[in-house]
What does this fold into?
Amino acid sequence: MEAQKPKAQTSAKKNAPGIKNASWVIVICAIICVCFFIFFLGNEMHFEDGHPINIWGTIYKGGFIVPVLQTLFLTVIVLAVERGIALSAAKGKGNITKFVAGVKASLAKGDIEGARKLCAAQKGSVAAVVDAALVRYEEMDKNTVLTKEQKIANLQKQVEEATALEMPTLQQNLPIIATMTTLGTLVGLLGTVMGMIKSFQALSQSGAPDSTELSTGISEALINTAFGIATGAFAVIFYNYYTNKIDNLTYAIDEIGFSIVQTFAATH
It folds into this structure.
C-alpha cells in the first residue's frame, strides 16, 4: 500500500502589512515635491530683485534637479516609515527572544498546545511560521503511515514553506531603498556638475564676471550636493537597519524550526 502524503499546510499567512506597489509612492512624492518647489520655494516672498533672501530661495536656486532629489529623499523617508510599521507587525506583540525561549521550553515539556497558545498571543510572522510548523508536528504525531524519516522531512519542508511565504513581505520595498542609496548620490552629483558648469561660464565671460550667474551656479552645485548626500546617507542607514531586523527575525525562525524538528526526532 502506497504511503499517503499529508496535505500541504497553508495556514501560515502573511503577517507583515505594507505597501504592495511602491511606484505609486514615488509618483505621489514627485507630485508633492514639484508643487512644493514651484509654489513654495519659488514664491516671490523668498526673493528680492531676483536674489534669494532666505534659505528657501537659496534652495530654489538649486534648479530643476532639486525636486528630483527631494522626490528621492521623500520616497526614502516614506518607505522607511512603511518598513518600520510592517516589521513591527511582523515581530509580533511581545519580545522575540522571550517568545523563542517560551516555545522551546514548551517543546521540551512536550506541550505543543501550550506552544501554539504562545504563538496566538505573540502574533506576527515568526509566530505564524512556528504555528504552521506546530500544526504539522501534530499531524505527523498522529500519522501512522509515514516512516520517521518521512515525517521529519515533511516537518522540515513545512518550516521552509512557511518561512518562504513570509520572507517576501518582510523584504518588500527594501530593494527600492537600496537603489536610492546610489541614485540619490548620482543625481546629486549631476546637479553639482551642472551648477559648476554655470559658475565657470560666468567666470569665463569677458570683463567682470557675472556675480548673479556665479552665485546661482554655486548655489545649484551646493544645494544639489547636500540633497544627494542626505538621500544616500538616509537610504544606507535605513536599509542596513531594516536588513538587520529581518536577519534577527530569520534567525529566530531558524532557531525555533530547528528545535521543533529536533524535538520530534528525539521523541519519536
